[in-house]
Amino acid sequence: MPYEWNHPITEPPVQDAPGHAExxxxxxxxxxxxxxxxxxRGFAFAIGFAYVALMIPVAGFVGTAAMWWLLVPGLIAxxxxxxxxxxxxxxxxILEELTIWPDHMRLTRTGPRxxxxxxxxxxxxxxxxxxxDSGPVKDYITLKGNGREVEIGAFLSDDERPRLHDELSRxxxxxxxxxx
Length: 180
Known about the structure:
This protein is of the alpha+beta class and 180 residues long. It has helices spanning 40-59, 66-91, 160-176; strands at residues 3-7, 28-32, 95-100, 105-110, 116-121, 127-131, 140-145, 148-151.
């Protein structure tokens, strides 16, 4: 699953729990990242398979000038495959981290090529919105607070976003309530 709660919030924080300002520990931490359909091991297999598939026709022309007419474009194609898959990996290096304290929330997004964005708000004033059909993806999720609306988990699959919305709503409800 491309998201996990490192510190899931299962009950409301205690009344006098130290908050962000006092240097207290967060009551919930959520990490989100894009799904990888081709793991690193699969990448090596794909390059190896392309190389073997190239060598089959080239083997019949070993020792002739025609071998170079097959080998050079084939190696360029393999190098292009390597580069494009590597580019896909680099573009998918996204990590979103939502940290919740009783009095503070922070969403950080680290993206490819050193992109960094941050949003902070008081959880008491934050709402979780689920845009079923009006966002760039189905069941688009946003957090609204501190005068801004930010997206979260847009790269997740269609069945994961509604589940994330429910979990975020529950976490915010628990963070807003206090127990004695």
